[in-house]
Amino acid sequence: MIRIANAAGFWGDSVTAPLRTVRATALDVLTLEYLAELTMSILARQREKDPAAGYATDFLRVLTSLAEELARQPQLHIVTNAGGMNPAACAAAAARILCQAGLEATPVAVVDGDDLLPHLDRILAATPLAHLDTCQPLGELRQRVVAANAYLGAVPIAEALTQQARVVITGRVADASLTLGPAVARFGWKWDDYDHLAAATVAGHLIECGAQSTGGFYTHWQEIDLAEVGYPVAELQADGLITLTKPEGTSGVVNRETVCEQLVYEIGDPACYRTPDVDVDFRYVEVEEVAPNRVQVRGARGSQPSDQYKVSLAYRDGYLASSQMLVYGRDCLAKADACAEIVFRQLAAEGITFADALVEKLGAGSAVPGVDQPPEGLREVMLRITVRHESKAAVERFAEMLVPLATSGPAGLAGYAALRPVVRPVFSYWPTLVPKDLLQPRVQVKAAKDWVQG
Amino acid sequence: MTDRPTARETATIRLGDVAHTRSGDKGNHANIGVIAYTRQGYEFLRRELTSERMAEYFAGLGTSRVERFELPGIGALNFVLYDCLAGGASRSLRIDTQGKLLGTAALELPLPRPANLAQMERRQP
């Protein structure tokens, strides 16, 4: 049996959950997942400005908190995609922390080779990187690409662990690979043993979003306490049986419902959940409560994956800003519309128009467009105006426009203390595929002290 | 025995009376997983909760098409709403760039009241 927990579901998740988890329960592997679809473009821009940046810095804070437990628990491993756009720099920084904690001999692995950018011209000579949905070739957008990373699989992670790495730091990998890699390294499964690979992939899918399988985002949230929610632990057997649980003494819940909600999270065709190592059939997966906070999951079927990696590519696509103001009064809806109209008329007078603009009245049915109507007698609404434009100057001018209404607009406005909103670059998403043989995943394992020396 | 509403009993129920949900994003598309509380509820939803019904309910999102998939193992339907996120996570101007609210919104979707509703409702834990 191997016990794998995940204590980070995205960059921004609790930085104290990892320590709470490893203190509360004995684990073989702690996984930490930091890379949402567009995190890489933010990291790519950080690396442009500073060659030593471009990784999930939260991980360093987490690792500092974990150093003592790593020393105390010799079986504990960490597998994380915190490396982002710069796994080697992340490893060097992590190694410094390990050395300061007296763990300088700890083997640290870097898994990379996911980054297409250094080879983009060579790759484009072999494949048009066509959009997965529209089938359009990347074409002229190539000039605007900020990040392009393949979702690597579990093979290099398993290889790193087989070479005795205790801390594995990757760039972009499929989220479930963080779990599949350790399972393969432990059980020695073959890479065409697809049903077993499928089982571990389901386990990875169930824990990859942290507390979302232990009571977070649960439909019946009012039945549980979420203040001390436990993060998920997958106990995986050599025959592929999964038991999902959480550490003793934590709140939240693991039951049939929380596990089923996470099973269907962000899936497409359940007959073919694609990963780099195995295509998984979720249709006949069964979920059964066997004890309080213990749920067994079985029945995943696997088949051979395609010969292509999925790639998340992001390109520059203008600038965006979003402004908010609380609008109060029996006429709050008309007043909110009037405020938006004033702002856009003033901008138009300066020659600035927005083809891409949205006015939302939060509290009045804007959050899910077309589904809800404003309630009768509504007296307050949050006006939110959001624009996107190719010109940064146009968006910056917009960002200055709502706040003055605090004194020059209608009566009944509040919330302007937040002042002007941030103008941020937009990175649009271009999902595509790349033939696996065009990339070379790489594993490097060195003692912490050797990463520090470079 | 039929699950269809009788002439006398034409009231509707909400989807949330017989199922729980979770939604999420994939680029510019979203999925809504609908998990029935019971086997009877799953069979009822297979008949009543068509992709057309879901597309109509979420017409305001600008969805281009809706595809429905079945997960008989757990008694769930998965709906993929294509192009419904106004550009997706970084590009969308909406407050809910990732379709996180769609599952909760779907709980309010009205359905014809089945005669055997009691067999479809959640058993209190």
What is this structure's SSE topology?
The complex is a heterodimer of chains A (about 450) and B (about 120).
Chain A: E1 2-6, H1 17-24, E2 29-32, H2 39-49, H3 58-72, E3 77-80, H4 87-100, E4 107-112, H5 120-126, E5 145-150, H6 155-162, E6 167-170, H7 177-187, H8 194-207, E7 233-236, E8 242-245, H9 256-263, E9 273-274, E10 279-281, E11 286-291, E12 294-298, E13 301-303, E14 308-328, H10 332-349, E15 356-362, E16 380-389, H11 392-399, H12 405-408, E17 413-414, E18 424-435, E19 442-447, H13 448-452
Chain B: E1 12-14, E2 19-26, E3 29-36, H1 39-48, H2 51-57, E4 65-71, E5 76-82, H3 102-106, E6 110-112
Antiparallel strand pairs in B: 1-6, 2-3, 3-5, 4-5
Can you walk through the features of this model?
- The complex is a heterodimer of chains A (454) and B (125).
- Chain A has 454 residues and is an alpha+beta fold.
- Chain A has two domains: 2-114 and 151-305, no CATH class; 315-430, Alpha-Beta Plaits.
- Helices cover 29% and strands 25% of the residues of chain A.
- Chain A has 13 helices and 19 strands.
- Chain A has helices spanning 17-24, 39-49, 58-72, 87-100, 120-126, 155-162, 177-187, 194-207, 256-263, 332-349, 392-399, 405-408, 448-452; strands spanning 2-6, 29-32, 77-80, 107-112, 145-150, 167-170, 233-236, 242-245, 273-274, 279-281, 286-291, 294-298, 301-303, 308-328, 356-362, 380-389, 413-414, 424-435, 442-447.
- In chain A, helix 7 (177-187) crosses helix 8 (194-207).
- The model of chain A has no long low-confidence stretch (mean pLDDT 96).
- In chain B, the strands form two sheets. Chain B has a four-stranded antiparallel sheet. Chain B has a two-stranded antiparallel ribbon with strand order 1-6.
- The longest helix of chain B is centred in the middle third of the chain and has 10 residues, at 39-48.
- Chain B contains three helices and six strands, in the order E-E-E-H-H-E-E-H-E.
- With 125 residues, chain B is α+β, with helices and mostly antiparallel strands.
- Classes of the chains: A alpha+beta (454), B alpha+beta (125).
- Chains A and B meet through helix 9, strand 14, strand 15, strand 16 and strand 18 of A and strand 2, strand 3, strand 4, strand 5 and helix 3 of B.
